[in-house]
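Subject: mismatched residue count in predicted assembly?

I count 282 residues in my input, but I want to confirm that the predicted structure covers every chain. Input:
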Amino acid sequence: MSAPPDASATGLHQRGALNVLYVEDYAPVAALVCDSFRRRAPEIRLEVVPSVAQAVERLTLFEQEHAGSGAAGPSLRYDVVLSDLNLSDGLGLEILAHVRSRGLYLAVVILTASVEDDTVQGALQAGADGYVLKRDDYLAHLPGALHAAVQGFRSRYETHAIRG
Amino acid sequence: MASHAQGHRHGEVFEPDVAAAIAQRFDGDAALYKAFATDCRAQFALDAGAGEAACEGGDLPALRRLAHNLRSALLMLGHQPFADVAAEVESLAAAGDSLAACAAWRRLHPMLLRLAIS
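Triage response: the counts match. Full output below for your records.
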């Protein structure tokens, strides 16, 4: 796994601030989640993309910028990827696989309407830092879930780095 | 859109359980619900056409994804019976039963059009 970027690159200069790459292909739901975050958790900023392909494109750019090639410093600042499970061109798990295979310093949270154990277990076994079921009050739980996932990811990363 | 303590029917028109949806799914934020409902009305008009195209073209994966999205959106809005039909379309499309999935879609289609112009 690559080294974590400095605080200015992740948005941590603002206490509690999170930058999210949000992958959702159904426009009303994407707008709803963004609207909800603006009202409930303005410290969390979302960039929305509608497909696996566009998410991978953004993550590739993120990786290139954080490799230090840009003199002006990175313009893409993500702390966590929040992805719907079912997307028009694939599964959110493909984005998760990309993040993990590239060793990106990002937490990943999967959103799913499925309550099937194998779906949730599959996401966690594939390295997701959390999942949120699209159930009754999931909008209220999303900010906390994202903060917890990022905290958990960074804690595991630091533990791994110390042992490694 | 009228608010009701429970979802119920007026004649043939199902009235959504708006009050319960706002309380349970929008943490009491009526403005957030209203904004979502407005976005959904515009989307449902597009979805009605997309579902027709999926059935005519035999594109069951597209019909399944569409029904999946509609199920969640309709449930959020408090349209439980419509969400149930969307779930039926999704399940039948996932099972590869084209005839039954599209038959269920034909029941969902007028519901979407009605919501789109409501």
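Residues 29 and 35 of chain A are 10 Å apart (CA to CA). Marking this ticket as 'not a bug'.
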